[in-house]
Design goal:
Order of helices and strands: EEHEEEHEEEHEEE
CATH architecture of the largest domain: 2-Layer Sandwich
Distance between the termini: 44 Å
Number of domains: 2
Largest sheet: 5 strands, mixed
Number of strands: 11
Mean pLDDT: 78
Number of helices: 3
Shape: flat
Length: about 200
């Protein structure tokens, strides 16, 4: 079931659309989402489309089943954030914070570019309001560790122990480097290399 709520244009700080998936939006949750996303107004023009989708994961083993997804469509780029929590308001807060950080990062990069401190190569530009931001991907961290031989089942246990989203290991059956990763539905996936 997909429900849409849109404010009248005279109240709308942004081109904002709030949706509910697998749930009926209460007016106070919808108002809360509109209020929180409204704080992005200072970074975006009123012509920038913003969509918020609130949903509930149906898997009973997932404790943080309240999901808030936000998308900002700008000319040349799309910013997305997805957060989960056991409380819908907390998920909305986390999602808005993440979107705000992304927009600020673009703004900072634009300032560096304008003053000549940025690199000369550029990726696809992001247009937010009347400002253009350019994101240049960089490697910000490098890690080295021993890839230990183990079974995929042992790798899942290691992944759960360290609390990360993925774990790299050498598969004892194939002697190839594999990656085990946590899926959004709570299960695990296995990436195997091919020759």
């Amino acid at each position: 079931m997909l429900l849409r709520a849109q404010l009248p244009s005279w109240e709308e700080p942004l081109k904002l659309q709030v949706k509910g998936r697998n749930l009926t939006l209460s007016s106070d949750i919808e108002d809360y989402a509109v209020e929180k996303v409204g704080k992005l107004e200072r970074f975006l023009s009123s012509e920038t489309p913003v969509e918020v989708e609130l949903s509930v994961e149906k898997n009973p083993s997932i404790a943080e089943n309240q999901v808030a997804e936000g998308t900002i469509w700008a000319k040349g780029a799309v910013l997305r954030a997805r957060e989960t929590s056991s409380d819908p308001r907390a998920a909305i807060d986390l999602m808005v914070d993440k979107l705000e950080r992304q927009v600020k990062r673009y703004k900072d990069k634009r300032q560096r570019k304008r003053t000549g401190r940025g690199a000369s190569r550029s990726a696809a530009p992001l247009v937010v309001g009347d400002e253009v931001f350019v994101e240049e991907p960089v490697i910000v961290k490098t890690k080295q560790f021993a890839v230990k031989p183990m079974t995929p089942e042992e790798a899942v246990l290691q992944l759960q122990l360290i609390g990360h989203d993925f774990f790299m290991f050498r598969n004892v059956e194939s002697s190839e480097v594999n990656v085990i990763y946590r899926r959004r539905d709570g299960n695990f996936g296995l990436i195997e290399s091919t020759r």
